[in-house]
Specification:
Number of helices: 11
Strand content: 15-25%
CATH superfamily of the largest domain: Bordetella uptake gene, domain 1
Keywords: Receptor, Signal
Pfam family, one: TctC
Structural class: alpha/beta
Distance between the termini: 55 Å
Number of strands: 10
Organism: Bradyrhizobium lablabi
Largest sheet: 8 strands, mixed
CATH architecture of the largest domain: 3-Layer(aba) Sandwich
CATH class of the largest domain: Alpha Beta
Helix content: 40-55%
Radius of gyration: 22 Å
Family: Belongs to the UPF0065 (bug) family.
Shape: globular
CATH topology of the largest domain: D-Maltodextrin-Binding Protein, domain 2
Oligomer: single chain
Protein name: Tripartite-type tricarboxylate transporter, receptor component TctC
């Protein structure tokens, strides 16, 4: 009996210590892992949020870029980090949803190895074509691709990238069978599209918009349910009769086992940052969509990731896409 009481007292002491630790958090700088190379669209989001969230929390947030394996290397670093709230992940549709099907043996389980914090932004994908492709809308594009499939190619930022899977979804819905050309990043893929070496690309709006505005590529369709405020004259694929809803997203995750009080505190800092006018203006100018406040809870993010995994299983398996 005495041993049982001692054990209970020890457990209670640990719980109180944990609660006190969570209440004081953070007492030192945090590290945000961006699981992609510096300079891309994800890096823009990371830097804007890190600065504002650091101001709100009273501690600086250092961004560490850990690329490799489609973002899996960086995400795995967070999955295996101490659950003390000082290391968190800027996850994406790739790291948390698509990779679970793409890789035969994922390094982590995105549903059980992380503590969801908040979904923050979505970035529509845009179907763009070389400027001299003789089409102007989805119906013309699909008809042309079916008639010329033997000589057409589409590019991507690499096998299994969000850009690749966006076009895989377009191809599946439209019944296209076109050769895929993977590049080592979105920039070389865009360069070859501009020079006419590939015929189309499903790019993230932040990098597609400048080329569309400059007339170096041709916009065929926004690949989300609603038109983009920054490209209001480009109709959606759905408007044009093709049921495609493809976008990337960014969300924050802590390692599993992180105290609930810390998860909530980081969530509150995230939501407060999202309400900052300067941050909103910069993100929206880039074509990014801040999610509504009812979609920013940890509970929503947990269900959202589950639904995204299920959504992307279909085009990945239909296209026979896998990454070793």
């Amino acid at each position: 009996m005495r041993k049982a009481l001692i054990a209970l007292a020890a457990a209670a002491s640990l719980m109180l210590a944990g609660a006190a630790h969570a209440e004081d958090w953070p007492t030192r700088p945090l590290t945000m892992i961006n699981p992609f190379a510096a300079g891309g669209p994800n890096d823009v989001v990371a830097r804007l949020f890190a600065q504002r969230m650091g101001e709100i929390l009273g501690q600086s947030i250092v961004i560490e870029n850990i690329g490799g394996a489609g973002g899996m290397s960086g995400a795995d670093r967070v999955a295996k980090a101490p659950p003390d709230g000082y290391t968190f992940l800027q996850g994406t549709v790739g790291t948390q949803a698509q990779n679970q099907t793409l890789f035969k043996t994922p390094a982590y389980n995105s549903l059980t190895d992380f503590a969801p914090v908040a979904l923050v932004v979505e970035a529509p994908l845009v179907l763009i074509a070389r400027k001299d492709l003789p089409v102007n809308d989805m119906k013309e594009f699909v008809a042309y691709a079916k008639a010329n499939k033997e000589k057409m190619q589409y590019g991507s930022a690499g096998t299994g990238s969000a850009i690749h899977l966006g076009c895989a979804l377009v191809n599946m819905v439209a019944g296209l069978d076109v050769v895929h050309v993977p590049y080592r990043g979105a920039n070389p893929a865009m360069q070859d599209l501009m020079s006419g070496r590939v015929d189309y690309l499903c790019d993230i709006i932040t990098t597609a918009k400048p080329q569309i505005d400059a007339g170096t590529v041709k916009a065929i369709a926004i690949l989300t349910k609603a038109r983009s405020p920054v490209l209001p004259n480009v109709p959606t694929a759905i408007e044009q009769g093709f049921d495609v809803d493809a976008y990337t997203w960014n969300a924050f995750f802590l390692p599993k086992g992180t105290p609930e009080a810390i998860v909530r505190k980081l969530n509150q800092a995230t939501v407060e940052a999202m309400k900052t006018p300067a941050l909103r203006q910069k993100l929206e100018a880039a074509g990014l969509i801040l999610v509504s406040e009812d979609r920013t809870t940890p509970e929503y993010l947990a269900k959202f990731v589950q639904s995204e995994i299920a959504k992307w299983v279909v085009p990945i398996k239909a296209g026979g896409i896998s990454v070793e």
